[in-house]
Design brief:
Elements (H helix, E strand, L loop, with lengths): L1 H7 L4 E2 L12 E2 L27 E5 L4 E4 H15 L6 E4 L5 E5 L12 E9 L4 E6 L5 H13 L5 E5 L5 E2 L2 E2 L6 H5 L8
Antiparallel strand pairs: 1-2, 3-8, 3-9, 4-7, 5-8, 6-7, 10-11
């Protein structure tokens, strides 16, 4: 009886009103969560490492990292400011900050519970696409410059990618397999 009542009356904490201008989930069940670790892609999946919506993009080349909502918002504003000269251009954000980060104050004694909520974050592994630019045709120089400026705002090393860029599996870039036409074509070999 009580377990049924507890599940129906479980509180849903709204996102902090103080930070409504930033990226944040609409509601979460538990505001305080474990710290967690940045995932390491070891299973063989290449999901999220290639472009899905746009023509140009950036993905993580360095170590996986935890992005805050403020960092992602700042980088997105830089891209939008740079490409607003192209009518109909769109910016796609491929990650979303849905992890609450709680911090205790400096020089606080041990105990007395977990710290208070500070900001929203997301954990992103190596090789994951962060931003894409698309919508209308954009010159490569403009896209490259906009994404370079956005990558400078983020705390890890990024790489510029296109539609033809092969997927990544962690630090390993996967090359496409040669087709049967390439394998059956005669090659020049020197016989001695």
């Amino acid at each position: 009886m009580f377990s049924l009542l507890r599940t129906t009356l479980a509180p849903h904490f709204p996102a902090s009103v103080r930070f409504r201008s930033q990226l944040a989930p609409r509601q979460v069940q538990h505001v305080k969560r474990h710290k967690g670790r940045v995932p390491i892609p070891i299973g063989g999946s290449t999901k999220g490492t290639t472009l899905a919506y746009g023509e140009w993009g950036i993905r993580i080349k360095g170590m996986g990292v935890r992005f805050s909502a403020k960092q992602l918002t700042t980088a997105e504003e830089v891209i939008k400011r740079k490409i607003k000269v192209v009518k109909g251009a769109k910016v796609y954000l491929r990650v979303f900050p849905d992890i609450p980060v709680c911090i205790k104050g400096n020089e606080t004694r041990m105990g007395k519970g977990k710290g208070t909520f500070e900001f929203w974050a997301t954990r992103v592994p190596t090789g994951r696409v962060i931003f894409e630019i698309g919508g209308t045709p954009i010159r490569e120089e403009l896209a490259r410059e906009a994404l370079r400026q956005a990558a400078d705002k983020l705390p890890t090393i990024m790489e510029f990618i296109t539609r033809s860029t092969p997927p990544r599996l962690g630090n390993l870039v996967l090359q496409p397999e040669p087709s049967t036409a390439q394998l059956s074509s005669p090659t020049q070999t020197a016989e001695t």
